[in-house]
Specification:
Length: 330
């Protein structure tokens, strides 16, 4: 049974992030914050909930796993989102990752187990393998992005209305390297955000997308300094919450209804195609890819596991890394 545990202390991470953001647009009242966590008895919560009188902050809390999402966390995240949607006192939410990364996608250990079983259960969860990603939200959520926002983590970020990205954060569909298909409406929302051609490039190459490019192509709305994404996301959320909500929700829904990728019938059909076109041959390919990746990750020293390869890095990827490093210096 999921419980919401309430106290009255603002988390150190939020407090520090708000101090570092130094935004004059809105100062968060420390006396008006309720802090809660979604947890099971006796366990460290994998989803945190912190609530101001107007803003609900939802934190993915698996920092040792780079906030990757396992089945239990996906269920908790979905329930927290449902509670936020039902709370008429909180018109805007903020979604973020605890401990330096937004989310590295679906939990690889659990994915490996599922793949070896030949199971598609994680793909077929009603609201999404990452939690609530196949839902239609009636309220805006602002996403605060730090560190890795990759694979299913990027699909989860695209689920939000707006994205605030730290200048050192990285996005990308790294699942391409393991043969894991998109299953959380990533193919639908990415094309709506950046356009068909750029979406194809990002999906097919599985390459890294850094902050400057993400802003240029519309994948993020703002770039902020490292360590300030949460505070700046909260400030942006407050700048939305200060307005009368009925007209705002009307205009937001009208925009979504007029966009083929987001109107309910079109969205549901596209998500259905994304899931149901997964074949048994793809499951076999995923089994092999995840096994190779997990093996290389275990063998690797303390290097960044996303750069570790089973064999030597191919020439084309060396060239890609060199270009990206050059672009970062510009």
């Amino acid at each position: 049974m999921l419980k919401i545990v309430v106290s009255y202390n603002l988390s150190n991470k939020l407090f520090q992030s708000l101090l570092q953001s130094r935004s004059n647009s809105r100062n968060l009242s420390l006396t008006n914050v309720r802090h809660g966590v979604a947890k099971e008895d006796g366990a460290e919560p994998s989803v945190k909930v912190e609530k101001d009188s107007h803003i609900t902050l939802i934190g993915i809390n698996r920092p040792q796993q780079r906030n990757s999402i396992d089945g239990a966390t996906a269920e908790k995240l979905s329930e927290v989102i449902r509670q936020f949607e039902a709370d008429d006192t909180s018109p805007v939410g903020v979604l973020y990752g605890v401990g330096g990364s937004f989310s590295a996608g679906y939990d690889l250990k659990e994915l490996e187990t599922e793949a070896l079983r030949g199971s598609l259960d994680f793909l077929l969860r009603r609201e999404g393998s990452m939690g609530p990603t196949r839902r239609h939200l009636r309220k805006p959520i602002v996403c605060g992005i730090s560190g890795f926002c990759i694979a299913g983590g990027l699909e989860l970020a695209l689920f939000c209305d707006l994205r605030v990205m730290e200048d050192t954060a990285v996005m990308g569909f790294f699942n391409r390297r393991m043969g894991v298909p998109l299953s959380d409406a990533g193919s639908v929302r990415l094309a709506a955000a950046v356009g068909y051609s750029k979406a194809l490039e990002i999906i097919e190459t599985g390459r890294r997308v850094y902050a400057k490019e993400a802003l240029k192509i519309g994948l993020t709305n703002r770039i902020v300094a490292t360590g300030t994404a949460l505070g700046q996301a909260v400030n942006l959320a407050f700048s939305i919450a200060k307005f009368p909500m009925l007209a705002l929700q009307h205009d937001r829904q009208a925009l979504l209804d007029n966009c083929n990728a987001y109107n309910r019938p079109g969205f549901q059909a596209a998500v259905h195609n994304e899931i149901m076109n997964v074949s048994l041959a793809m499951v076999t390919e995923m089994q092999e890819g995840v096994k190779r990746f997990r093996s290389s990750e275990v063998k690797g020293a303390k290097a960044d596991s996303w750069h570790i390869k089973e064999k030597s890095i191919p020439d084309w990827e060396k060239a890609e890394i060199a270009i990206e490093e050059m672009n970062k210096k510009q």
